[in-house]
Amino acid sequence: MTSNPQGATRSNIVASVTLVLGGLIGGTLLSGLMLYILTLTHFPAFGNSNFIRSLTTFAQVVFVLLTVASMLWAQQGRLALQRGEKLSYWRTHFGPGIVGSVLVSGLVTVSLALPLAATKLYLHGITGDQAFRAQYLTRLTDTALLQDMAYADLPPFYPAGWFWLGGRFANMLGLAGWEAFKPWSIISMAAVAAFVTACWALITRPDKGIALGTVTALFATTYGSPEPYAGIVAMVMPLVFVLAWQALNPIGELRHQGWGATILTMVVLGLSATTYTLFTAIPAVAVVLTGIGVTIYRAVQRGKARARKSVEYDSNIFPQAQVLTRRYMLQPLLRTLVIGVGSLLIAFIAWAPYLLGSIGRPRSGSGLASHYLPADGATFLLPMFKTDATGLLCLIGLIWLIVTLRRSRIAQAFLIGIVSMYLWTLASMSAVVLGSTLLGFRVALPLTLTFALAGICGIIDGTHRIITLLIRNVVVKPSTTTKQVNALAEKPLVVSGDETVLSGADDADATGPMVQIEDDFTTLPRPFTCLEPRTRRSYTGKEQPLHVRRTARTTVSVVGTIAVLIGIGFAQDIPMSLSDEIQMAYIDTDGDGQRADRFPAGIPSYYPQVHDIIMKDAVERYGSDVKESEIVVLTTEEPLLAYYPFRAFQAISPHYANPLGLYNERNVLIEKWALSTSPEDLLRQLDASPFAAPTAFVFRREGDNLSLLMSEDVYPNQPNVHDYQLSFSAALFDSKCFAVHEVGPLTVITRLCDSASEA
User: Fold this and answer.
1) Which one of 463, 470, 567, 619 is least enclosed by Cβ atoms within 10 Å?
2) Radius of gyration of the chain (CA)
3) Which DSSP string corresponds to 177-229?
């Protein structure tokens, strides 16, 4: 390290920023390169052969082992610092940190990309909720303006951040929105996993940070990848808890510490609000409660100190020079305000069109996304009691949180986040009496992830404790050299009184109290974001007695080997955990009209013909410059609206429909159209529509009737959506104002005239 403190600080800041950016960029590029290579392959479908699974497992094992190697590299740098070697953060943090981050992104990529290598669709295909997500990405691929995924002339209600970036990704590669959905999902998951790993490497230490990042990636891939934009926000939530705790209750001199964490918390919360608002609300609640709680605590301490005209407190938490000042007391509220205002301004980038567009406009009173209460949302989430590796890791995390709460700032931050998530869950359960929920079941992923990360910290600390117990009676006098101790260390050493003797001697007291080896903790140079300035001194260093080193290395080897094998087992189970979602990606028909498993394609195979017919008739009516986004289609063919950027007269689902679109009123209007008495009557009603009327219709034919599959909100029932058939008489379109085309089981109808009088 340089002897110039200011130079050291600048070097650490540069190295820290480079590490984070290098991990993010490197992880993105590696993931993109791997996906490109997979496009050149011709693998069999995942469900038809074990070929892809075998290759996936091989790649996962390789990346897990390489990630472990990067941890060992980081550990060697830490040991070198403990030995007094002068190393810069470019060697201790940047090297292993950036390599570990990139490798974690590779682990995410192979876990998702290889099982999906033979299909163009992402997890869950184009079925259910994935249909509206693909539709949203298709819309924002067609335009860079923030527009609703379905309705014409409406700003978006669903957060557009991830989808807008995905649209630019699709434009850059010249892909259709639906086709970009898979690579963009995988790349964004991998990139954020690399970013989170780099951040953990900075605020803890590189070897521990890589372990935390790896577990984050594995859990997010297993439980959050079907909804990728939610998964990436869930990955950063535990990190936000830690940053917010450092921002509102920093260590060290308060005048200089915590503002970096404040800005990072503000930026992350703001960006997450543009991506997945629910997972932003929970840490926002944690920030507010923490800010208020710390302020009250400081006010009490200040009052006591002023009353007794003396200062008696923990100087590590309340510096003497500042504890009596009002500025010190109010600082948490000030930083809470900065975080809140700053994050809202960032979020306003995505939310401004909707908030401004909703002024003075009616909204739907039902069909909200919060009208959903599955079984998981009606039970208290206790992941530590699962009978698998996840449950064991979460249980270890719970124990670690309780044991280390008073001394570990990370444990304190995690516990604040966990309490906030449990409060959110309870509030969601109680909100049912008000006719809605807070979607408390969604908390399962970040809650489980936070407990799991605490479990990793518990394993690391627990390993040290085990070593301490195994060598509980070993101590070396300060005057004893390592060479002298090792000469006597053929047998274990114990303490008897003030003398160091061999175990087995008559005066050895093997049942005496534990004696902690000196220098159990050591202070390391750290970058400006570090929240753990002290680290446990390694028992495997050369300055330790031979017996201590042997015991420590054996213990670390045993625990480490078990942990690595559990990690490999968890990773290789990811394809099986997602087997249904992977299978749907091969069963569903893609936008090219093909099924990836080579079986006969379904009805979506007719969509290219449907598209061509609609566009041909639109060109004849409006001219050659007509765009798909200018055509409003009435249909319930979900994949059609996901594959092509047509405007939809009615959204795919009531719970994801824009409240400004008035879903129920549109349903009533469609039902009224179905009761029309003649083509002229139908045309008059279409012209009188308060919404942009459809210029094309796509039905399923059933004899002389043309049917749509309609949906309505029936919350609090579960399922919360009721589907019903609505039929139009084919005679309603028997007019020169309509062109009727039969395409397989579909009937495509386009409007040719501008008004009912032309009929």
Assistant:
1) 619
2) 31
3) HHHHHHHHHHHHHHHHHHHHHHHHHHHS-HHHHHHHHHHHHHHHHHHHTTSHH
Phi, psi for 79 (deg, rounded to 5): -65, -35
Q: Which residues of the chain have pLDDT under 70?
A: 1-12, 82-84, 87-90, 252-256, 308-324, 365-367, 472-537, 541-545, 756-759
Runs of H (alpha helix) within 496-637: 546-572, 574-577, 579-587, 607-622
List, for residues 495-517, the tens digit of each pLDDT value: 444 444 433 333 334 444 333 44
**Is the peptide bond between 156 and the residue preceding it cis, with omega within 30 degrees of 0?**
no
Determine the residue type at 242: V
Separation between Cα atoms, residue 287 and residue 293, nearest integer Å:
10
Look up residue 614 and give its amino acid. I
Which amino acid is located at 131 in the chain? Answer: A
Using CA atoms, how far residue 710 sits from 365, 523, 637, in Å, is 18, 65, 11
Nearest to 555 by CA among 452, 677, 462, 428: 462
> pLDDT at position 480, please?
47
What is the phi/psi pair of residue 727, to 5°? -110, 140
Quote the CA–CA distance of 286 and 264 in Å, as a whole number: 16
Among positive and negative, which fits the CA dihedral 247, 253, 255, 257? negative
Phi and psi at 471, nearest 5°, equal -115, 30
d(CA 137, CA 145): 12
Phi, psi values for residue 330, rounded to 5°: -90, -5
Classify residue 84 by burial, with Cβ atoms within 10 Å: 0-12, 13-18, 19+: exposed
CA pair distance 443, 381, nearest whole angstrom: 8
CA distances from 323 to 245, 330, 405, 426 (A): 18, 11, 23, 36
The H helix count followed by the E strand count for the chain is 23, 11
DSSP 709-744: EEEEE-TTSSS-EEEEEEEEEGGGG-STTEEEEEET
> Are 31 and 187 contacting, i.e. CB atoms less than 8 angstroms apart?
yes
Q: What are phi and psi of 298, to 5 degrees?
A: -70, -35
Residue 89: the pLDDT is 67
**In a 10 Å sphere around its CB, with 0-12 CB exposed, 13-18 middle and 19+ buried, how is residue 540 labelled?**
middle
pTM of the model: 0.89
Q: Position 371: which residue type? A: H
